[in-house]
Design goal:
about 20% strand; alpha/beta; 10-stranded mixed β-sheet
């Protein structure tokens, strides 16, 4: 009844825990689709060994070259056969009850999208923290989008069991960052009924800088901004409070991208073009008009950070580095 889609790339320190959490699910009516995205370590060999000794239904798809997370997910989706889809990141793991709770809730409520809550595991400290504060209940797409845009739930794809018909006309954008942010709003919009569970069933690994593959300068900012503009055109005019909720969502994403662009660019010349593109996306009059309301959701320092980008991107870059060094 469920197709689990699992792209694998350079996660040999974590993949066995992920695979074991799938094998040990209390609900066993699923297929596991692993996509080997041509990593440089022995991750896929560990997967092959683990799965060959299990009794679960699985297949491994070998990409001919590295395609990235989005395209690998699309490949897995094309090979899936089940009524429901669950995407998993290969350095995370699941509660043994995750599939059972999500699927039973989907059937009991006749829902085509079911979300759970997640715990964040910090590799550096070994501590767990709760990620989401959304309340359990049954939601319409409009209500759930409003909660998403206001920060009450995240845009992560992996906390959601998705009826495959919702994904018929939706694909993850290729070669861009924040693929979940650019995709999940469309999935929610296409849903008929959404169920939110209070159960914390997914464990998301926050890797330290030495093992993280995301701790690097964002790539293809032009492609990302093109997708973000399309998202803005599709959702801002119809979102709650005359688009204010969506703008909270928008500026939070922009802040993270700008921050990482500066943080992981060792020289200003490497960051200059991307900062120029990001700067052009910000409408300073709108930002200043809504600054009091927006600051309550994304923080006044984040908004001032974006305002400084709009006025002087070089000053922002060197101020960031100066504060970092200090």
């Amino acid at each position: 009844m469920i197709s689990i889609i699992l792209p694998v790339y350079n996660v040999n320190l974590y993949i066995e825990k992920c695979i074991d959490s799938i094998i040990n699910q209390s609900f066993q009516n699923f297929e596991l689709i692993v996509i080997d995205d041509c990593g440089t370590d022995d991750s896929i060999q560990l997967v092959e060994k683990r799965l060959s000794n299990s009794s679960i239904n699985f297949q491994i798809i070998y990409n001919e070259h590295n395609k990235g997370l989005s395209e690998s997910r699309n490949v897995g989706l094309a090979h899936s056969k089940s009524e429901y889809i669950l995407f998993i990141d290969s350095d995370d793991w699941l509660s043994p009850l995750m599939l059972e709770r999500l699927y039973s809730s989907a059937i009991e409520n006749d829902a085509d999208l079911v979300s759970c809550r997640a715990m964040e595991f910090w590799e550096k400290t070994g501590k767990l923290s709760k990620m989401h504060k959304i309340k359990q209940g049954v939601y319409t797409p409009t209500n759930y989008l409003s909660l998403l845009f206001n920060g009450d739930t995240s845009a992560h794809i992996w906390i959601r069991l998705i009826k495959r018909e919702l994904l018929r006309d939706i694909k993850f954008p290729k070669n861009v960052i924040f693929e979940d942010v650019l995709t999940v709003p469309y999935i929610i919009k296409s849903a008929r009924k959404i169920v939110q569970l209070d159960d914390e069933l997914y464990f998301y690994l926050q890797r330290n800088s030495k093992t993280s593959i995301t701790g690097k300068k964002p790539t293809n900012i032009t492609g990302f901004l093109s997708c973000l503009k399309k998202l803005q055109e599709d959702f801002e005019p119809t979102s709650a409070s005359n688009g204010l909720g969506f703008r909270r969502f928008l500026y939070k994403i922009l802040f993270i991208v700008v921050y990482n662009t500066i943080h992981y660019s060792p020289t200003y010349s490497e960051a200059k073009k991307d900062l120029k593109d990001l700067k052009s996306f910000i409408k300073i009059n709108i930002l200043l008009r809504d600054i009091i309301t927006l600051s309550k959701s994304i923080g006044i320092n984040s908004l001032l950070y974006l305002c400084l980008l709009k006025t002087n991107k070089m000053l922002l870059y060197f101020n960031h580095k100066k504060v970092l060094n200090r």
